[in-house]
Fold:
Amino acid sequence: MSTKKKQSFLGGAAILASAVVIVKAIGFFYKIPLNNILGEEGKTYFDSAYQIYNVLLSISTAGLPLALSKLVSEAQARGRENEKRRLFSTAIWIFFALGLAGFALMFFGTDWVAARLHNESAYWAIRALSPAVFCVCLLSCMRGYTQGQGNMTPTAVSQVLEALSKLGIGLALAWYIFQAGMGQELVAAGAILGVTIGTVLSMVFVSSYLLTHRSPGEALDVPAGRGTLALRILAIGIPITLSNSAMSVITLVDTSIVMGRLQSGLGLTERAAASLKGSYGYAMDMLNLPPAFVFPVTMSLIPVAAAALARRDHREVDRIISSAFRLIAILALPCGVGLSVLSTPIMRLVLPAQPEAALAAGPHLQILGLACIFVCLMNLTNAILQTYGKVQLPVFTVIAGGMVKIVMNYFLVGNPDINIHGAPVSTLCCYLTIAGLNLFFVWKYSPEKPRYLAIFVKPVIASVLMGGAAWAVHGFVSRALSGHSAYGANAAATLCGILAGVIVYAVLVVALRILRAEDLKTVPHGAKLAKLLHLR
Structure:
């Protein structure tokens, strides 16, 4: 493949990080109105189908595309064009088989899958999503091939195209079906169909890109056999897949346990259980937002840490890892505290059409806001451990946290005095366990031991003060507007509280010298930002 301009490694990472931010921003404008359309029951049907998809997606996209990308990159560095082509033609059949198996499970085994989740009304949503599994497997292979050649543009564009299709097609279908009064299970299926169509369009785009950007001329290298190349791809990809898909599998099992215990432990009907699970699902959507925006910022530091590690420059590794932790602390802590302090007002703000569901979701988000901090820490420490070559450790820590989550949910959700309120507690304990274990192993294997107390104390103090300011301003504005529209008063009070929190936190970050100029050195445009903030 020929490209007009070679992208640097960090430039490619910046393109992908920018795409992630755009995709998540589009996802926000997709999920918020969709949640208002779906209602609590429809939300559970949508989530059930998507969690199955996430497991199959993780298996097909977590490790094998990275393995293909690595091998293609190595072949390109040695000028082995024929080996590049054979790697792709070999990998495409592996992905084809994975996609076909996933599609068959979701399409022909829909009844069985829905029954295992104790959520038979999710039938149509699961079936509507089944073609996406096949398409995304082929798409992942193509993305891995282009990324291996240092070209991140096809991946970034296709990700944005997927997100736009969800927004433009999925949301429109869900609204149309809702207006036609066809039932929440079909509304969820309509929303899911937008995901499937987006995947198909993305696959067509990347396929067209590959066909129009072929490498010219013939090469003289003699590549290894297809069996040998397939074994190389699997040897690299399978350990990474196990690490990255473990949490998706555990979340799916956890969903089955929560739905099952609400029905068997509390004697609820499937629809009543789905309604309770839906309020928890609303809060989970808010939990997943901050990590999606925070993580790309810190991930730009990891390739630089890997390069320093290869040079045995332990002091530079320590500086980079400490910077990554500081950035996570500076960004994740205020997000988590803010979500927790303003939990119910935020849910009322984003769910104007579902006021009862918003009130039910508020207490869940109060706990999950704190869990958000540990999700961000988990993501960063997983990446650091993989940079250190400890690729197996994140698998075991995620499984340990998952077991905590599953066991706690079984006993807490099945308790009539706790019921669905046990789900966010188990989620918090799950991520706390994973992050705690990871922090220990990062400390153990780091050449220069990270100073966690020095890194986290100031951001914690600043975040607590920020949370207090946000809570106080929200309360003041809410009382001042008590005679006006309930939704309008809450919206104004919540936005004022958030604004106050942002201002207070920004002032404290600079005043307490929490952020350093070196922390922004490897972040895109970090030098300009450091100069603007007068950081040293």
The CA atoms of residues 73 and 362 lie 47 Å apart. The first helix runs from residue 9 to 61. DSSP finds 18 helices and no strands in the chain.
